[in-house]
Sequence to fold (662 residues):
Amino acid sequence: MSHKHKNKNKNKNNKNNKNYQNNQNHKNPKDPKPEIEQLSPSLFWRFGFGYFLRLISRRLGLALVGLMVLQLGLLAGIVGSNTWHYLEGQLELSPVEAKLEIGQALKIKSNFGLDQNFAVETEPSFDYHLELMHTGALGLVDQIVLVPDGRLKTGTDYRVKLNGIAKKFGDKQDLELGFRTQDAPEIEAVDFDQASNVKLDQTLTLKLTEPNNDLSDFQIKTQPEIQFDKILSQDKTEVKFVPKQEYRQTTEYGVEVFDNYKDQLKPVKQYKFQTVREPKLSINQTESLNPNSNLVLSFSEPMNQQETTIQTNLGGYSWLDAQNIKLDLSGITPGNSYDIEVMTGARTEAGGRLEAESPRSFRVRSVGEAYASISPGGYGLPINSRFRVDFSQAVDRASAESRISVAPSFDYHLEWASDSTVLVVPNTSLGYGSEYRVVVGAGVVNLGFGLPSSSGFTGSFVTEERVTILGVPFFYQTMPLSCESAALKMALAYRGISATENQIMSLVGYNPKQWQVDGNQWDDPYQMFVGDVMGSQSAKTGYGVYAPPIAAAAQALGANSSVHYGVSASFIANQIANNNPVVIWGYSYSGQRIDWNANGSAVGAYIGEHARTVIGFRGNPDNPTSFIINDPVSGQLNWTAAQLMANMNIHGNLSNQAVVVY
Fold:
């Protein structure tokens, strides 16, 4: 039989110093299970035999003494005089069920009983309880077992001191024993760190430095997340994590290993691996196939040929290597389409598979009719451009030449770059700003495999516009309101006449007066410059001058000039074509009317009145598309004909004025 005594107070000095009869015990968190290292006993006292006889005599009577002596003598002969028992060597213990005795689970044992009055110290401290065992025929407590109540710390040296331990009726002595708990296993290696081409169902294995006897509870987490079943190998040196679902293909996974110690996840190590790549498909040609074409279907990964099936209405296929399939084109006919499909279930040698939703089919077409593309096209082509006709296949040259024409007609010759490309080369420059067409008629015959064209092809283009520009120098105006003088200065310079703005201003007529509020009186811009050339139009401190005084100043400086109102774009372009720069009026901002009276007559005026010099145009003089303008404030401008006319016509003939200098 046995009965237990528990010890429930913790020593403040990190030791358990306990008297057995005080029924004390410690309770600490669970620690890993230990393994006992070799133990060595202290000197033991020997059994007090005379005292024992007296005890038996009093209990059983003198009549039995002789018999007891005989029995004890026989017993002593069997067990000998060594009444303390211990085992040398190591013993692994379960942290919950097994008992840590002296030798085997820290067992204190005597054949003829133990005195229960002794103290226990443990260092470092751990929780335990003592169990009393009755194993002998005499009914005495002959074994006392010290049992840890929880998991001890791994890799730790422990000392247990038994102070005042004694056999029944013997002298008390101290006994000290030591043991070391098993080291917790560590991860020695894994089979997946930095691995590539990891299979979609691969088990992840942790190889441990030593058997894991419930000392660690390894768990893993992956990103992207995967659920696993955990299996401990029979020898407890490997932990295997079996995925419950497949990994994703072509994906890098992060793996973090934890030790679930006391239900708290403690990070241990981190790893990465790359899963197998999904195979991608490509084909080297889809159009204009003939029986001699080399049509190859390619995979991005080496394929398992036994698990890769192709369906096609071509003549069949053969593997060139683990990544390339050659399609048989021997039976194709002109102008037909053919399908190639890689069937579901195709797998790579590494275990990757072709996903059902991935592109896995192609449609190819054999050579049909010869068709042509003509380039270049569009607008603004140089007048000496060549034109290229590309056929979809090699054609009979004579057949093609007889079907090529141009419109409107121009003199050209043909140059063949290959059996599928011919150049149309003009023998003279084409016209400016003109539209042309190159036409390939139906019926062009191909060479060998294919069909004659059943329709024609046309390419159209427009040549560049003629640019007419005079070498008129550019000058910025030097005063806020001297734009008219600066514009005339540029036109005169083209005629070889040098003049300053001040010279022109004096010839125009410059006698600045203030605008009179009473009666809204000011000077007449048709007669002279109005206001202060350093003034402001919006504040009516200065304005400008119109065409007649500018034309007169040009003549005074030795040029011919003429004044015009309501001019058109073609009028200006024709003047430029005739080598005559044109000073024009328009506006630079606002355009708001600010009329006043001069010499009893109303004078039309507007804020932003501004003069510029037209020096060039694009296109035909009778239908110009754009103009090149010297603006003495903004620099050189490129305006469409519509932009120029809109600026000049803001106030009809009031703003649409021009002086031609010739």
